[in-house]
Amino acid sequence: MDFFQAQDDALARSKWLVGYFAAAVVLIIVAVYLAVTAGVFYYHFEVRSGPAPGLFDLKRLLITGLIVGPMIAMGSFWKISQLRRKGGQGVAEALDGRRVSASSRRPKERQLRNVVEEMAIAAGLPVPGVYVLEREAGINAFAAGFDFDDAVIGITRGALEQFDRDELQGVVAHEFSHILNGDMRLNTALSGWIHGIMMLTLLGRGFWRLIGGGSDRSGRRGGGGVYVGGGGGRSKGGGGDSKGGGAIIIAIILVAVLITIIGFIGEFFAKLIQSAVSRQREFLADASAVQFTRNPEGIGNALRRIGGSTRRARLHHPEAGEFAHSFFANSRKRAVSIWATHPPLETRISKILQDWKGDFLTPRPKPKPAKKESPKKQKRSAQNPFTGAMGSGSGTGSGDFRNMLTAGLFMRCLGQFKANSVERARVIREELEATRPEVYEDTTNSPIFLLALVYDHTASDTAKQDAILSEAFPDWLDAVKSRSAELQDLSRSERLILTEVLADRLPEALVESERPEFIEALEALIQADDKILPFEIACLQIVRRCLLKESHFAPSRQDNEAIIEAASILTSLLLRESTGEHQDAGSILRSASQQAPFFMNLLRTVETRELPAVSDAFSILARTPLGIRKQFLSLCERIVAADQKASIDEVELLRAVAIGIAVPAALILPEAED
Questions:
Q1: Are 636 and 574 in contact (CB under 8 A)?
Q2: Cα–Cα distance between 363 and 158 in angstroms, integer?
Q3: Distance (Å, whole) CA 413 – CA 418
Q4: Would you say residue 381 has pLDDT above 60?
Q5: Own/partner pairs for 578-582, CB < 8 Å, 24+ apart?
Q6: Which pLDDT tens digit goes with each residue over 70-117?
Q7: Is the torsion defined by CA of 239, 245, 250, 251 positive or negative?
Q8: 425: which residues sit within 8 A by CB, 6+ positions away?
Q9: What's the alpha-carbon Rg for the chain, to the nearest Å?
Q10: Helix (H, G, I), strand (E, B), or coil: what is residue 292?
């Protein structure tokens, strides 16, 4: 599926979700109104005299709505705000997940991180955080977050112990499909709305605590939380105080019972919404996992493994119900079909494995001792960790790339896995681990490697760069210069991959107080040589998002002039990098933008070379609606293709721009284009 179309579909589903939520709130208010009316009727007939109250009372209905509606809305708003603040990490921590360190030496956890990292490299996404639900023996997994940069992949301890590498890869690919197709954002928001709908369940429990406190700890009436004073109105017979007070207590109990029942009604609607939103998306994610990995047995056997386990995919955490729709398989103890958040295992397996005989896989009795992955890779050359997978880093123009750009195929690569890209990403990661083990064994090396990627050791005068490092991180100066020389032959593509791998490790390597200083040093190094390269800006954007968790949510008001200015700055930067000396940049821009929508035909060439302006331009476009970003990248593609030539460097130039504005751009290789 087209990446941008998938995001539009997710937005359309979110609008339906608003309708479901509004309908559920209205029905819950009506149910609470009827419960309160029942309590009023009981109190009237037992205590009061006079005409009976009417079944419909507008004042009572309005009061009920003004209490219940805001209560649900506030519960949802609080939960969504909490999740937005922490992203996917908030969901993982709510389920008592433990973050897996990038330098973890536990074999199974290392394998999990490797698989997640390979998927991220293949898709051109930031590496999601990885969490393990230690207390959950059921076999399950989830993806959570509001954006690509705050996404996490979580997996239960049971799944980690039971899955082999192929099964693990199939499940992780399934979760990456949810990330790329916009399901993750929708599911995370839905969890907040579900929390609001469940507020009445919490209210019912509060009523029972109130009654429990007031019901007879000492054996005397009114001796606890509920006090009924004397002279409480007229009664139909003698003993008015006693009867009236007892009737009030019974009325409160009746309301508590009804509110509790209504809480279950709210839970019913919550589960109904969860099932309506997520069930059909699971089939798409399963199919995408097969497409990504080219291995149906991986995800198929993972589902068979769940079916053969006595615990299945069940989770026992009390908050798991709010996130049931986000899991890989049904996490509930009992799955009534109308509430099922996932299709039956048998149906999913039969769609994936055409010759499936209906059998499940028995649980592995004991986790296998981990073995080092791909030991053959250790023998490869240490000169360039990417040569085995990517060939030369500075490829010249080829028919593959020229056809790719002129036919608009680059746009189709966005948010997609190309043929064999996951396997190629695995080779790249293994080469990197074999030749740069210090990146994987010690996260404290990641800031040094990142600074080395932008340090220009070939400059005639490195004194300015040395001064920047000496002032900010004097202990790292020699190491940065040494690493820069080692990394000099890496192409744009290789540098982007290494940047994504390293940026994921930065939060572990730098304490909170060091992060702004590190970003300032990175910015200063980029400006030191008086050149601003698209890779350097993409690198800076990736680092800023990992360390500062900058949001890409579109602002409520769109500033078209700011967008035009930002797009003009970036296209001018692109023109300087991709056009020859004898080409007129202005005419190329006019020709490329002639029929561009979203006011992209208003762009102009700009001579700005200042890093703050370029960085701000990337940040502005990263927060624009996806439709604008799509048209901007399509315009960039036409600019690069204008000379009817294309090299891997030019294609990776486009990829750097896409990553810089928060659009996933898959790994692109010449031999992958067929």
A1: yes
A2: 10
A3: 7
A4: no
A5: 578/639, 578/640, 578/643, 578/650, 578/653, 579/642, 579/643, 580/643
A6: 888 888 888 888 888 888 999 999 999 999 998 888 999 999 999 999
A7: positive
A8: 118, 119, 121, 122, 667
A9: 30
A10: helix
Residue at 426: amino acid letter: R
Which of the residues 109, 175, 430, 500 is marked catalytic?
175
To the query of whether residue 161 is one of the catalytic residues in this protein, the response is no
Q: Which residue has the tokens 């330098």?
A: 103
Which residue in 86, 196, 210 sits closest to 151, CA to CA? Answer: 86
Question: CA dist 312 to 307, 360, 367, 468, Å?
Answer: 6, 11, 17, 56
- Do the Cβ atoms of 255 and 39 come closer than 8 Å? yes
- 129-133/98-99 β-pairing: antiparallel
Tell me what pLDDT residue 212 has: 63
Cβ(270)–Cβ(197) below 8 Å: yes
537-580 pLDDT, tens per residue?
Answer: 778 888 887 887 655 555 556 788 899 999 998 888 888 777 66
Residue 375 has pLDDT above 50, yes or no: no
Tokens of residue 97, six digits: 């997940």
Sign of CA dihedral 498, 499, 503, 508: positive
Contact 128, 152 (CB under 8 A): yes
Q: pTM for this structure?
A: 0.80
Q: What is the dihedral of CA 81, 85, 91, 96, to 10 degrees?
A: -120
Query: Would you state the structure tokens that stand for residue 511, as one six-digit string?
Result: 């304490």
Average pLDDT, the chain: 78
Return the closest-CA partner of residue 168 out of 436, 368, 2, 428. Answer: 368
